[in-house]
Write a structure and sequence with these properties.
homodimer, 2 helices, 7 strands, three-stranded antiparallel sheet
């Protein structure tokens, strides 16, 4: 491709259940190893950001995303200590609750209150924006 | 950067004036040479998508963007014939109307009705979404 180098494109997925709990994974790898994070990862070439979001959710938690709603785009050059990434964050629902850790996730958990947790990357910022977008999803 | 290859990150900027006209450039280079398009371009590493949007608007039209509102993220692998790009599109206003073509723009024009034009890339789709977001901006 004759393109200039641009920030690496990633996606993150916020999933709330009916009780307002959020689905978090525990990171298996650096950076932020062992910290809680949103399911997500790099977008493949020849894949839309929506498809990447659904794929990452499935790979890391075994769950199937419902309709995706765009939360925002997060491109602060310092958001990832490895280098510059830009994440497209989506909000979704899932029909099932039986998440199972896979791929880059050491564990997966439905969390009622994520605020006391030290989340990876800028995921607390993404979660705050998701809650503003879907206030009725929180108790 | 130890990152996998991801789609190239771009940004596009929809600017309406008070009369509801939209700011378009005429493309100087391939692909879509001579077609009308939204101002925009590639995001630099160590630059946020918002900063890239403001920079491209300034470089191509001489105008300064007002506050940016996210329209959407466009990542169809076929949107650019050169290869896979993902564009983050923003809506904005500008205080001044005296646009002046620069950089990749052969000409710049305020267009009252863009619908009869054959626009570059998926820019007609972006414009339709921008109009849905800001219906009061159209006559």
């Amino acid at each position: 491709m004759p393109f200039p180098t641009t920030p690496a494109l990633t996606t993150d997925c916020v999933v709330f259940d009916k009780a307002g709990r959020v689905l978090l994974i525990r990171r298996k790898n650096a950076p932020f190893k062992d910290r809680y994070a949103l399911p997500g990862g790099f977008v493949d070439v020849r894949e839309t950001v929506e498809d990447a979001c659904r794929r990452e959710l499935r790979e890391e938690t075994g769950l199937k995303a419902g309709p995706l709603v765009l939360i925002g785009v997060y491109s602060d050059p310092k958001r990832d200590p490895r280098g510059h990434t830009c994440s497209v964050a989506f909000l979704t629902r899932t029909e099932r609750a039986d998440a199972k850790a896979g791929d880059d996730a050491a564990a997966v958990k439905w969390v009622a209150d994520w605020r006391p947790l030290k989340l990876a990357f800028d995921h607390a910022k993404i979660l705050r924006a998701a809650e503003r977008l879907a206030p009725n999803l929180r108790p």
